[in-house]
Write a structure and sequence with these properties.
With 250 residues, the protein is α/β, with parallel strands linked by helices. It has 10 helices and 10 strands. α3 packs parallel to α5. The two termini are 34 Å apart.
């Protein structure tokens, strides 16, 4: 398996945020994580990427454990070369133009030449329709454009897995469509994607598996057509606004 999470637990100030999470992600699979705000979705992504230290449990990538008690900065730099992340608030450097935001990681972390990194960045910007914005600064971009730049920045590190954390939450409907179209294109190219989202229609169309979380636990995991038409738990039916009586009648 590509990524496995076993018995993962995480608490803040004694309050459990992730409670015994178990999840397996196959290579090339697209996972959509759904659930109400505060259920632990974003914290789970941050634990996978080493931005939050877990309390207990294990995460393995290609069978190798990436969560270790002695993990240091250099270890996680190596992990993040394989597991990229795109954040809700873009996290672009305001004093750098688009090109420099994208090539900073490849040059600093992978020690690639500016020429090589720029060639990759140029190709990626063309792919997401932003070639003309290469020398613009973040303040000159719309929210949707900033998010597409953030996606290019993640892709320029050539990751195996990309984590998307509510990347459309701060966008208006037109910008949402721009960003979702880019993610949909990625989904057809063999990358492994783990997407935290409130966009139900998008999740149903793109995901191979739906993971539904409630109060720090994974309550239900199933194929999209099954989850959205006939979820098997009361919590999921509440979340989707479906009648509970139908579940009881089965």
């Amino acid at each position: 398996m590509h990524l496995t999470i076993t018995n993962l637990k995480k608490s803040f100030n004694g309050s459990a945020v992730l409670d015994d999470i178990n999840l397996t992600v196959k290579q090339g699979e697209i996972i959509a994580i759904l659930g109400r705000s505060g259920c632990g979705k974003s914290t789970l992504l941050r634990c996978i990427n080493g931005l939050e230290q877990i309390d207990s449990g294990e995460i393995h990538l290609h069978g190798a454990r990436i969560t270790k008690s002695d993990s240091n900065y250099a270890h996680w730099v190596g992990v993040r070369k394989k597991i990229g992340m795109v954040f809700q608030n873009y996290e672009l450097f305001p004093h750098m133009n688009v090109l420099n935001n994208i090539i900073l990681g490849p040059m600093k972390v992978e020690k690639r030449s500016r020429k090589d990194a720029t060639e990759d960045a140029t190709r990626l910007l063309e792919r997401v329709g932003l070639s003309e914005k290469m020398f613009a600064f973040p303040r000159e971009l719309s929210g949707g454009q900033k998010q597409r730049v953030a996606i290019c920045r993640a892709l320029c590190m050539n990751p195996e897995i990309i984590l998307f954390d509510e990347v459309t939450a701060a966008l208006d409907p037109q910008m949402v469509r721009e960003v979702l179209d880019v993610i949909k294109t990625l989904s057809n190219q063999g990358l492994t994607l783990i997407i935290v989202t409130h966009e139900m229609e998008f999740a149903e169309k793109v995901a191979d598996q739906i993971v539904f979380m409630e109060k720090g636990k994974i309550i239900e995991t199933s194929a999209p057509n099954k989850f959205f038409k006939s979820p098997q738990t009361v919590e999921a039916r509440h979340f989707l606004g479906l009648p509970i009586e139908q579940l009881h009648a089965k």
